[in-house]
Each structure stands twice: as C-alpha cells, then as structure tokens.
Amino acid sequence: MITFTLNGQAQRFEGDPEMPLLWYLRDVQGLTGTKFGCGEALCGACTVHADGAPIRSCQTTLGDLSGVAVTTIEGLSPDGMHPVQVAWRELNVAQCGYCQAGQIMSAAALLKDTPHPSDEAIDDAMSGNICRCATYPRIRAAIKRAAGEVHRKTASSGSAK
C-alpha cells in the first residue's frame, strides 16, 4: 500500500505502483486541472508539487510517492487567490489556457524559493514549461507582479509569529 498526501488529504493506494500520478489525479481523483501534454515530461502541462518542488506527474509513478505531500493546481489555493493565480488573471496571461496550470505550479515553486527572481531565474525555472500560444512575456510579467505579493504575505505571516 502506498500512502501519501494529496492537497492536504491522506491517500491510500493499493493499485499498480507504476501508475503515473497524472492518471491517478485525473481518473481516480477527478482533479482535471493537471493536464496531459506530451507524456514525456518535456512540456510541463502536468506539473504539480511534491513536497513543494515541481515535478512532472506524467512520469512520476505512485510508487515514487510514499510519504510525499502532493499539491495540484486545485490545492495550491482552493479559492484561486494564490498571488500567482491573481497575477495570471490580472495580466490576462492565458490565451488557450491548456498549459497554464503547469505554468502556475512552476511559478509558485520558483517564488517560494526565490522571492525576487531575476529575468534569468524566471527563464531558467520556467524553461521546462511550453506555451504553444507563446505568452512568455505575460508569464514573466505575472511572475514579477506575484513576486511582490508573495514577499509581502511571507513577511506578514512571519512577523505574526
């Protein structure tokens, strides 16, 4: 049996440990925000967090997840108010929208570790996420906008302790 956490909820899986996390999310849990793109971990559409780090769920098996905390786009902020999600909406980043959940998950992980990333750091962190609509300038602008808000929220929650 494989046990892990998904969006804060304990999971117990007794099926095939080689099942890709992506199929578990979409087909078993009904969490369709995480998308299938290439199936080869090259496009980033299936990006989720494992213990806070971005991973490709199409190539991560359930057997790899024992004891891991997985967060999907649905669990990033249930009300859609994570600073990255807000910046995405404010700057109308999405065009077709297919890649955006993966883009947002990669951006959120970047800002957690690098509160004020340079253009180069943004490009490096986001290089594994492909946007066929080429909204890269809006993606970078949204990450920069969100960076200030993430920093403010982190500073205010840290000072409250």
TrEMBL record:
It holds the Pfam family Fer2_2. The keyword Nucleotide-binding does not apply. Gene3D superfamilies: 3.10.20.30, [2Fe-2S]-binding domain. GO terms for molecular function: 2 iron, 2 sulfur cluster binding; metal ion binding; oxidoreductase activity. Keywords: 2Fe-2S, Iron, Iron-sulfur, Metal-binding, Oxidoreductase. Residues 1-76 form the 2Fe-2S ferredoxin-type domain. InterPro entries: 2Fe-2S-bd (IPR002888), 2Fe-2S-bd_dom_sf (IPR036884), 2Fe-2S_ferredoxin-like_sf (IPR036010), 2Fe-2S_ferredoxin-type (IPR001041), 2Fe2S_fd_BS (IPR006058), Beta-grasp_dom_sf (IPR012675), Diverse_Oxidoreductases (IPR051452). PROSITE patterns: 2FE2S_FER_1 (PS00197), 2FE2S_FER_2 (PS51085). SUPFAM superfamilies: 2Fe-2S ferredoxin-like, CO dehydrogenase ISP C-domain like. This is (2Fe-2S)-binding protein. It comes from Nitrospirillum viridazoti CBAmc. The lineage of its organism: Bacteria, Pseudomonadati, Pseudomonadota, Alphaproteobacteria, Rhodospirillales.
